[in-house]
């Protein structure tokens, strides 16, 4: 592990991730296991983002201890990719570092995860298809969305921020997120950008047309695929449609070529069922001329028993296929600039 005392992470200073129970996180909860008290009409986004515990977490970044972070799962700590404090040139971060600012900050990155609705039921995420269109659960998620709308979209402004939809399901498999994306008037918020994190099956040309008001605000499109062949896709992306996905990927590639989206990324959750297709996945990304191919280890979100997770976690020391997995990572294709191995990076040079 690198010398963290000289490193800087912007996440707790920028990041707000909303959850369906109203709580919010400052980072991916598996990387930084902390949640704010639930957002409500009496507890605003600003109050949650600057509470006493949040300030302590920010102090742990500035003092270099990173004591609240999961250093094993965080891909930035794991891959030694955090920048040195001295190298930071961004005006906002420079002020935070130089003046030790930990209070009265506003989110820059909103990760909307308060609706888990999705058209797929991938085994890495859930056991069955989940879709909420009415009832108490829907009303609670809608209430959180309304708070985000009030925080960011209540009146026109030119403040920069980035909205990610969604880290919890699919933006087009969710009524709440569809309604949001189809109705925001991006012209009123020229510096608000959108990242769309999707499985891609519902992201076709008709869906793109329905987002006409925010097309100029689209920043990154992230498509989670987890396979290079239809056979494996049917295992890792349960409920998906390989043919539709391929058509939509080509459509998204054409949007990127026309510079109608700023970045196109393909994601691959590494597991026993698909690790042998990692090489071909990079090739798929290159054929589609994507900007980035991103890998990450599968995480047990409660969908696997301990025994089953040991079967799928191919990188573990006692896994019977670990050596084959390590050997695949030695391929020079993973040195390609479009490849980001995330928290898989450490295994690329593992000689054990």
Question: Which key features would you list for this structure?
Answer:
single chain; 352 residues; 2 domains; 34% helix; 13% strand
List the helices and strands and how they pair.
Blueprint: H1 11-14, E1 15-19, E2 24-25, H2 45-49, H3 52-62, H4 75-78, H5 91-99, E3 109-113, H6 135-153, E4 161-165, H7 175-183, E5 192-198, H8 205-210, E6 218-224, H9 230-236, H10 242-257, E7 263-270, H11 278-287, E8 292-297, H12 306-312, H13 322-328, E9 339-340, H14 345-348
Parallel strand pairs: 1-3, 3-4, 4-5, 5-6, 6-7, 7-8, 8-9
Antiparallel strand pairs: 1-2
Task: Please describe what this structure looks like.
It is a single chain. This protein has two domains: about 5-100, no CATH class; about 110-350, TIM Barrel, CATH 3.20.20. Helices cover about 35% and strands about 15% of the residues. It contains 14 helices and nine strands. A nine-stranded mixed β-sheet has the order 2-1-3-4-5-6-7-8-9. Strand 3, helix 6 (about 135-155) and strand 4 (about 160-165) form a beta-alpha-beta unit. The longest helix is centred in the middle third of the chain and has 19 residues, at about 135-155. The protein is globular. The model has no long low-confidence stretch (mean pLDDT about 95).
Q: What does the overall shape look like?
A: globular
Structure annotation, total helices: 14
Secondary-structure element string: HEEHHHHEHEHEHEHHEHEHHEH
The residue fraction in helices comes out at: 25-40%
Low-pLDDT residue intervals, each spanning 5 or more residues? none
Q: How large is the share of residues in beta strands?
A: 5-15%
The total number of structural domains is 2
* Total beta strand runs: 9
Assign the CATH topology of the largest domain.
TIM Barrel
**Computed CA radius of gyration, to the nearest angstrom:** 20 Å
Structural class: alpha/beta
Biggest β-sheet description: 9 strands, mixed
The name of the CATH superfamily of the largest domain reads Aldolase class I
**CATH A-level architecture of the largest domain:** Alpha-Beta Barrel
Looking across the biggest beta sheet, what order are the strands in? 2-1-3-4-5-6-7-8-9
CATH class term of the largest domain: Alpha Beta
Spatial gap, N to C terminus: 17 Å
Can you give the mean pLDDT? 95
């Amino acid at each position: 592990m690198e010398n963290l005392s000289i490193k800087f992470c912007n996440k707790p200073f920028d990041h707000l991730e909303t959850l369906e129970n109203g709580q919010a996180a400052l980072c991916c909860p598996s990387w930084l296991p902390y949640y704010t008290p639930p957002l409500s009409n009496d507890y605003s986004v600003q109050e949650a983002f600057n509470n006493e515990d949040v300030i302590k977490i920010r102090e742990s970044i500035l003092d270099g201890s990173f004591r609240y972070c999961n250093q094993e799962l965080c891909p930035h700590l794991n891959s030694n990719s955090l920048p040195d404090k001295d190298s930071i040139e961004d005006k906002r971060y420079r002020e935070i570092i130089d003046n030790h600012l930990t209070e009265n900050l506003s989110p820059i990155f909103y990760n909307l995860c308060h609706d888990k609705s999705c058209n797929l039921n991938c085994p890495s995420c859930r056991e069955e298809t989940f879709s909420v269109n009415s009832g108490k659960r829907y009303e609670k998620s809608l209430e959180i969305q309304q708070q985000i709308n009030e925080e960011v979209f209540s009146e026109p402004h030119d403040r920069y921020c980035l909205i990610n939809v969604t880290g919890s399901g699919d933006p087009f498999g969710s009524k709440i997120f569809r309604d949001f994306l189809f109705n925001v008037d991006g012209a009123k918020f020229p510096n608000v950008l959108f990242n769309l994190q999707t499985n891609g099956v519902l992201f076709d040309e008709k869906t793109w047309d329905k987002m006409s008001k925010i097309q100029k605000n689209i920043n990154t499109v992230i498509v989670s695929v987890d396979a290079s062949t239809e056979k494996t896709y049917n295992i890792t992306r349960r409920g998906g449609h390989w043919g539709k996905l391929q058509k939509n990927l080509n459509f998204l590639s054409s949007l990127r070529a026309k510079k109608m989206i700023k970045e196109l990324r393909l994601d691959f959750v590494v597991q026993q069922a698909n690790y042998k297709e990692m090489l071909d996945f990079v090739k798929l990304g290159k054929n589609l001329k994507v900007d980035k191919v991103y890998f990450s280890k599968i995480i047990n979100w409660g969908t696997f028993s301990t025994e089953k997770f040991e079967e799928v976690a191919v990188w573990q020391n006692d896994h019977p296929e670990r050596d084959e997995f390590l050997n695949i990572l030695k391929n020079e294709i993973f040195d390609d600039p479009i490849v980001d191995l995330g928290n898989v990076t450490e295994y690329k040079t593992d000689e054990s």
